[in-house]
Every structure is written in structure tokens, then in C-alpha cells.
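Let us practice reading a record.
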Amino acid sequence: MTTRLAVFPLISAAWSVAGRLLVSTAPWLILFALAAGLYSFALRSQSGLWLPLGAAMLAFLAGTELSRRAYQRLIPGAAAKFLPLAHANLAAYAAFLFIGFFVVFFLMMLPGILINEAGQYQLNDESDPALVREAFIALLGTPYGAVFIACCAVGAGLLGWIALRLTLYGAATSALGKAQVFRTWGRTKGHLKTLGLASLATHILPFALGVAVNGALHRALPDTGLGHFIGGAAGVLVFAPFLLAGHAMAAAAWERLKPAEPAPRPPSSGD
């Protein structure tokens, strides 16, 4: 029998527990934020390679432990082992980085090709950046601009589709105690519409709000080491609703879509 998911129960389940998750995950959320602040500071300082690299590693470890604590609270009986979840996170990030690199590379090359095809401007490697911006803005009002926008939509749609197919990987890994990145691919088949609609409220809306608040903070903070540290740390904290609601939605979906437990074997006549 096919398991059915419903949009509003997923959204309700996510937001009803997201606030309570804040208490159990607060220390790791704070550590994650401090590591992000240190990373932001290190990128703009003369500290060399090791400080930003160490801050990035600390942010990854704190973020993974934040996820582990969240799923442990959300999924009854979850094994919630750290190393399998770290392994799964690295695999998922690598997959997105690999695919995203080619998507972004193509979209960065495409405007130059379309501008030259349009014929209004002829650009080369030595073109003035102001002329390049002018040509790109002019391109957007033409059919060639529509082609570029359509390609951007396809690229974003591809990455969004992959993200939805992998919605369950963290919850499944925590529940089962083994890395489950692409093993969850089939579990979301036939449920992308429901997951996508639910993610509008649990992922996209809080993420968009976080981006808006983060942008306002960066404009308000001074261009100093302390300003960059505060901006990096606050940048994680304003995304807390996105992080917590996203984990809660994934856990709720996993509870509906997880494989059925095998029926107990009846005792044999010799038992």
C-alpha cells in the first residue's frame, strides 16, 4: 500500500516542535554561530590558511552535532550516531558542490555567449566591467534574456529537485545509525509535490527571511574584524528557524515514509 503524505500535517508537525528543539540544541547552535563568526573574521584578516580552515571544520562539527541532537529528540529510538551523520553530510555536500559547480559555471558563461549572439555588444576578455554590466542589463529585456532566465530557472529547479529527493537522508541516517544518503532516494519518489509544498513553509520562507535579515545586518555592521565576526555569528542565528523547522519536517516525513519493520517470525514447531 502506498504511503500518503499531507502538506499541512507536515508543516504543523515541523513548527509545533521547532521551538522546543531550540532548548536541546541551543549549546550547539551557539557554538555553530561562534565558529561561523570566527570563519567570517578569519576570511578578512591576515591570519593565513589555518584559522579559516579550523573555523570551517569547527562549524561543520558543531552543525553536525546540532543535527544529531535534533534528530535524537525528534525520532523515538533513533541511534543518532555522530560519525554516520557526518559521513552522510559530507557526501550530500560533495554531491551538491559537484552538481552546483557545473550549473553555476554554465550560467556564468551563458550571458557572454548570449550577448555576443544578440549582436548589440561585442565583448571580450578586456571589456570594461561597466560595459559588461550595461550589456547584461540590456540583454535581460530581449528574447536572449528570456533564454537566460529560463536556464536559471532550470538550474534552480534541478538543485531543488535533488534537495527534495534527499530530504530524508539526515533523518534516516540518524534513525538507522548508518549513512543513508542516496539510499533514501526511492523513499521520496511520488512525494515531491507534497514535500515541495511543505518546504515552502518550513524551508524556503524562513530561509528567505534569514537572507533578508542577514543582508540588513551586514549593511548595518561596521567593516571591521569585530563587525565581520558579529555578522557571521548572527548570520547563523537568524537561520535557526530554517534549521530547526527543516529538521522537524524531515523527521516527520521519515516517520511516514520509513520502511515497515519486518513482522516477527512465528515460532517454529521445534521452539
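A brief commentary: The longest helix spans residues 7-43.
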